[in-house]
Every structure is written in C-alpha cells, then in structure tokens.
Amino acid sequence: METKEGIKIEDSIRSSPFADHFPASNLAGMLDFEEKSSLGFMELLGIQEFNPSIFDIFQAPIPSKESSALTQTSPVPASSEISNPPMTPNCSSISSESSGAPNHEQTKAVDEEQEQQRTNKQLKPKKLSQKRQREPRFAFMTKSEVDHLEDGYRWRKYGQKAVKNSPFPRSYYRCTNATCNVKKRVERSFNDPSIVVTTYEGKHTHPSPVMPRANAAGLPPGSGCSADGAATFALPVQLTLPHRPQYFNNFSPLNCGYLSSTNPTASIHEGRFYTPTSAFLKDHGLLQDIVPSLMMRKEE
DNA sequence: CGCGTTTGACCCGCGC
DNA sequence: GCGCGGGTCAAACGCG
Fold first, then answer.
1. SS3 of A162, please?
2. Would the pTM count as exceeding 0.85?
3. Which of A43, A48, A79, A139 has the fewest CB atoms within 10 Å, i.e. is most exposed?
C-alpha cells in the first residue's frame, strides 16, 4: 500500500527548498542516524520520518511511484508519502477531492447514472468510484498521552478502524472547514503506546482558526498558515494541553530547518527522539512563535 | 439545535 | 476471482 509511495530521502532533501539550510554534513548525520538506529517503530516510518521538509510537499511535490525506494527497511506500510506529480506548486489541491482525477463532465454524468443504478440496487448507495487521488501526506510521531493533538485547526472525526496487528484503533479526522480538504489519521504505535503517529493529508485552504499570533509575529501571507496554500500546516502546538508531546526524530515539522540547521544532534535528543517544545520554549516561550521564527530563518 | 463522536456497513485497491 | 485490509459514509447518538 503506502509502502509503494515512499519518497527518496536524499533526493527529497536535495530538492527541498530548505536544502540550503541543511548543511551537507548535517544531512549526512541525520541520515546516518536514520540508517543506523534500530528504533522499532521508528523504522516503520523511517523514510517519512526523515522527510526533509514538510514544505516540500506543498511546494515541490515529488512523483511517488517513480521515486519510491525507501521502503526496504519498513516491514510495515509507511505512514506518509508524497504522491503528487511534480507539477507546478499548488497544482493539486484546492480544486477539491476530485482534483487530479480524470473526471470531467462526461464521467460525471456517467457517475450519476451509475449512482442511480446503485441506488436502485442497494440500500446504501455509496459514493462512486473515481480513482482516488491521494493528497500529499506527511506523518510524524509524537510522544503524548492524548491521541488527538491540538494543531491549531479544528478536526472532525469521521471514522475509526481497528488496525491490523495493533490493539490500538486508527482514527480518521477531517478539517471542519467546509472548503478544506485536509484529513489526518491518528494512531498509536503498537510497539510504544505512548507514541502517537499522526498523518496529515492534503492542504489547508484557510488560515488556522486558532493561530492569531502567526500573522502578528510577522508571518507574511502565504508563507505559513495562510489560506493561499503555500504552506498548509499549523504545526502541532501544545499550548493548551496538559501533555507536552515529544516530537520524534528529524521528521518533526518543527525542526525542519530550525534545529537541524543549528544543531544536528538536537534531533536525536535522548537518543531516540527530540523534544522541540522545550527547545523552542527556551528561546521563544510559545510554540506559536516558533513558526514565524522558522520561516524567518528561511529568509535569512 | 448545532456540532462532534461513535459505529456498522460499504467501497476500493491490492495481493494471492 | 476472491479475500483482506484500509478508508469512507452516514445514521444514530451525545453533549453543551
């Protein structure tokens, strides 16, 4: 499944708009860490964890199938992927779920016919089968006692499934904004129940409803949590939660460019994972200030 | 009443 | 072709 759609780590790094901010040595170190570490569940996400920058997903999508080469260490499907074709930035998402799928008016009409037929046949006519176009995905692991981490957006749960070989169910969330197509999956690690794996899919088409300080802190429109789709995440923030999650590894969106560019070893804090919250709090006190600082570093 | 969660059924893709 | 597992739908329900 998803293992097929992994991304090539190094290529992604090099193609990353943040590549300039990752000294080669740092990158190597990070890769080494990724390769050498035998982290159990970490391996499950090994590739994605090391996604060089979440911003790649939105700025320079990478073809998935062609570039998948990183799954050799992942016995279990990976949790994130970059699956958009390398078209122009922002090419995929805003046009809703059907975007990218080859469905035009004709197919739409056909679909409606089929749907009518289904309606006659079944009690519960379901949505028709267009080829599902996967949005870019991005996953990270968080050490937290709460499953659903606050990330600045409002989510509505639309499903929950038992995960094979895991006692923990996987929850499916969708952004409550009607125009927004972003989804996320939340599941706990089988190996370490204290770890929450969150997988985002898609792009927010609206500003974060609870990130008022983003703009105030100097976030230019389009550079961060804005509606124009340049970047789409509100980075997970834990401002109000009693639990302070620990973001794992280099893959955390929070250390894309920030920590890695300053201290390559920071991301392997405690040998396994890194706690960006505390690090950021040192300098900024609030995670909301981090996002702008991250962006501003890019500008430097 | 509106919004979010729960949950069983259904759909779809993939591997065998 | 079939079965399995992931993903989604939508009715029912709960809560403020």
1. strand
2. no
3. A43
In this predicted model, what pLDDT tens digit does every residue of A229-278 receive, in sequence order?
333 444 444 333 334 444 444 444 333 333 333 333 333 333 333 333 33
What is the tens place of the pLDDT at every residue in A25-37? Answer: 333 333 333 333 3
How far apart are the C-alpha atoms of A55 and A58, rounded to whole Å? 5
Q: Measure A14 CA to C16 C1' (Å).
A: 50
With a cut of 50, which residues of chain A have pLDDT below it?
Answer: 1-130, 212-300
Could you tell me the CATH number of the domain that includes residue A163? 2.20.25.80
For residue A195, being part of any structural domain is answered with yes
Q: What is the DSSP letter of A285?
A: S
Specify if A152 maps to a domain: yes
Task: Find residues whose C-beta atom lies within 7 angstroms of strand C.
Answer: A 1-2, 77, 124-127, 132, 158-164, 170, 172, 183, 185
Show the domain range for A172.
137-201
In angstroms, what CA-CA distances link A121 with A107, A112, A275, A279?
21, 14, 54, 58
